[in-house]
Automatic annotation (TrEMBL):
<keyword id="KW-0378">Hydrolase</keyword>
<dbReference type="GO" id="GO:0004527">
    <property type="term" value="F:exonuclease activity"/>
</dbReference>
<dbReference type="InterPro" id="IPR036866">
    <property type="entry name" value="RibonucZ/Hydroxyglut_hydro"/>
</dbReference>
<keyword id="KW-0269">Exonuclease</keyword>
<protein>
    <submittedName>
        <fullName>Ligase-associated DNA damage response exonuclease</fullName>
        <ecNumber>3.1.-.-</ecNumber>
    </submittedName>
</protein>
<dbReference type="InterPro" id="IPR050698">
    <property type="entry name" value="MBL"/>
</dbReference>
<dbReference type="InterPro" id="IPR026360">
    <property type="entry name" value="Xnuc_lig_assoc"/>
</dbReference>
<dbReference type="GO" id="GO:0016874">
    <property type="term" value="F:ligase activity"/>
</dbReference>
<keyword id="KW-0540">Nuclease</keyword>
<dbReference type="GO" id="GO:0004521">
    <property type="term" value="F:RNA endonuclease activity"/>
</dbReference>
<keyword id="KW-0436">Ligase</keyword>
Length: 345
């Protein structure tokens, strides 16, 4: 460990030695700073949680009763001499970058982030620092996202064609973040919108935080079965492979994920359509975000770590990787696979 390092690797997770706390630990610790409420970054069992104020509802929806302290974006507290503040990461509702200042050094741990606009969360805020800890989930040049208006035109067009054909439009997506972003962008005049039981409590948390979402229903609340043939159905990926899907009769299935950029990913999943939609930064977004920090040292975590490290080194930066237990979109798929497929969940 270098004397000036404000974040180091430990078996429990990323640790701040002078502050004696962890950032998104993957094993239970006394004090944890949480960047966002996805399952690989916010785990149960910690003694004390610190998170951005907008994340409170989704954290409690996912973790239940926890000892949670919240901090408005940009407001700082000092713990054991370390000045800590949280800044928008643009990933999902309440996602934050953790800024640490101590001993003349400023470090930022970004968690997961995206730089593209998103109506459902605060936009990514570049934070100047000496050392930047970045994800690299989609850290390959092949990953480049289209503009949201193009993407939602594709989704609305697919849904409209299915309405004309008399079949339901079943769109698999992760219950937290992706589902709400889709809801914010689709055209609710095309037909009714039905959500799986795993999606509903997260929608409630978003609405409670002031995020505008169109009206949605559970399938058990639909009395006229003809409405199901006009519906857009949002559900976790696990539900597509379950008996729950039979309720809708004839349907067209699709999956919304950044992994749909890869040829063959849709086919392997057995979906009729794939929509390239991610809550992570694409390759240009990652490079733009890293550059905006002004950091001369960059630490790369989960994703395409060797590629990103090598590229940054070629650009003259001091770059290295951290081994973590963070996942990517697949972690949320695993999470949803454990959620009951029954409508009452």
């Amino acid at each position: 460990m270098k004397p000036q390092d404000l974040v180091v690797q430990r078996p429990e997770g990323l640790y701040c030695p002078p502050g004696d706390f962890y950032i998104d630990p993957w094993r239970p610790v006394p004090r944890a700073v949480i960047t966002h409420a996805h399952a690989d970054h916010a785990r149960m069992g910690n003694g004390h949680y610190l998170a951005a104020a907008p994340a409170e509802g989704v954290l409690r929806a996912r973790l239940g009763e926890i000892e949670l302290q919240t901090l408005p974006y940009g407001e700082a507290i000092t713990h054991h001499g370390v000045r800590v503040s949280l800044h928008p990461a643009g990933h999902v509702l309440g996602s934050a970058q953790v800024r640490l200042e101590h001993g003349g050094q400023v470090w930022v741990a970004s968690g997961d982030y995206k730089v593209a606009p998103d109506r459902t969360c605060d936009p990514f805020e570049p934070v100047r620092c000496d050392v930047f800890i970045t994800e690299s989930t989609f850290g390959l040049p092949i990953y480049r996202w289209c503009a949201d208006h193009e993407l939602f035109a594709q989704i609305n067009g697919w849904w409209s064609r299915n309405v004309l054909a008399g079949r339901a439009s079943v769109l698999a997506c992760y219950s937290f973040g992706k589902a709400q972003r889709i809801l914010s962008g689709v055209d609710p005049t095309i037909g009714p919108i039905i959500v799986h039981g795993a999606v509903r409590p997260l929608n409630d948390a978003y609405r409670a935080a002031g995020v505008a979402l169109p009206d949605t229903r559970m399938v058990t609340e639909v009395k006229d079965r003809a409405e199901l043939r006009r519906a857009l159905v949002l559900c976790p990926p696990s539900a597509v492979a379950s008996t729950w899907l039979r309720r809708f009769g004839e349907s067209s299935t699709a999956f919304a994920s950044g992994w749909m950029r890869l040829r063959g990913a849709r086919r392997r999943g057995g979906y009729d359509r794939g929509f390239v939609l991610s809550d992570h930064a694409d390759w240009p977004g990652l490079l733009r975000a890293i550059g905006a920090t002004g950091a001369q040292r960059v630490i790369v975590t989960h994703g395409s770590v060797p590629v990103m490290v090598r590229y940054l080194q070629e650009q003259g930066l001091e770059a290295e990787g951290f081994d973590t237990e963070y996942g990517d979109d697949v972690v949320e798929a695993d999470q949803s696979a454990q959620e009951p497929a029954g409508e009452g969940t």
